[in-house]
């Protein structure tokens, strides 16, 4: 019994001495056993970073933008492209190449929001904002003033 107690005290003193030496040398040293400083696979490092920073929702929406044709179908994906996700408002902005496709997507938006939320988690996408095609730029003549917006920019 006394021998066991003496061995435990000696082991504790040895551990304390080892810890003090490591602290003087600048902390833990690499060894044969795994610790948090060991190299890891790229996928697990990225997953860990996303979790630590709280980027789960933006990363998931980014994955949706990559899988857009599988989610909405090839026909709709040819004419409508997701442009941006507003994380604060939880709004997905989609641009269509014609007003007809924009109208079609506006009619399908509630079903698409439900499908996206089923895939990403409830409440990730609250609204889909559909934009039609952009109008042509008003560029008259070969010379332009820097920063002007066209012929009507002087009228306020």
What are the defining features of this structure?
mainly alpha; 156 residues; 3-stranded mixed beta sheet; 6 helices
Topology:
Layout: H1 2-24, H2 42-53, H3 56-66, H4 68-72, H5 74-79, E1 80-86, E2 91-96, H6 99-120, E3 127-131
Parallel strand pairs: 2-3
Antiparallel strand pairs: 1-2
Question: In words, what does this structure look like?
Answer:
The structure is a single chain. By secondary structure, the chain is mainly α. Helix content is about 50%, strand content about 10%. It has six helices and three strands; from the N terminus they run αααααββαβ. The chain has a three-stranded mixed sheet with strand order 1-2-3. Strand 1 (about 80-85) and strand 2 (about 90-95) form a beta hairpin. The radius of gyration is 30 Å and the shape is elongated.
Q: Number of helical segments? A: 6
What kind of sheet is the major sheet? 3 strands, mixed
Low-confidence residue ranges: none
Q: What's the helical proportion of residues?
A: 40-55%
> How much of the polypeptide forms β-strand, as a percent range?
5-15%
* Cα distance spanning the termini: 95 Å
Total count of strands: 3
The overall pLDDT, averaged over residues, is: 76
- CA radius of gyration: 30 Å
Shape descriptor: elongated
Helix vs. strand class: mainly alpha
In short:
By secondary structure, the protein is mainly α. It has helices at 2-24, 42-53, 56-66, 68-72, 74-79, 99-120; strands at residues 80-86, 91-96, 127-131.
């Amino acid at each position: 019994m006394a021998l066991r107690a003496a061995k435990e005290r000696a082991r504790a003193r040895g551990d304390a001495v080892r810890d003090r030496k490591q602290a003087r040398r600048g902390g833990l040293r690499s060894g044969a056993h795994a610790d948090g400083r060991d190299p890891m696979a790229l996928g697990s490092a990225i997953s860990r970073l996303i979790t630590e920073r709280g980027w789960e929702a933006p990363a998931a929406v980014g994955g949706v933008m990559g899988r857009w044709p599988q989610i909405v179908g090839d026909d709709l994906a040819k004419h409508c492209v997701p442009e941006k996700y507003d994380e604060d408002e939880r709004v997905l902005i989609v641009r269509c190449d014609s007003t007809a496709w924009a109208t079609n997507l506006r009619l399908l938006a509630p079903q698409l929001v439900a499908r996206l939320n089923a895939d990403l988690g409830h409440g990730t996408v609250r609204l889909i904002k559909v934009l039609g095609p952009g109008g042509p730029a008003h560029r008259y003549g070969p010379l332009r003033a820097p920063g002007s917006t066209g012929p009507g920019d002087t009228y306020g």
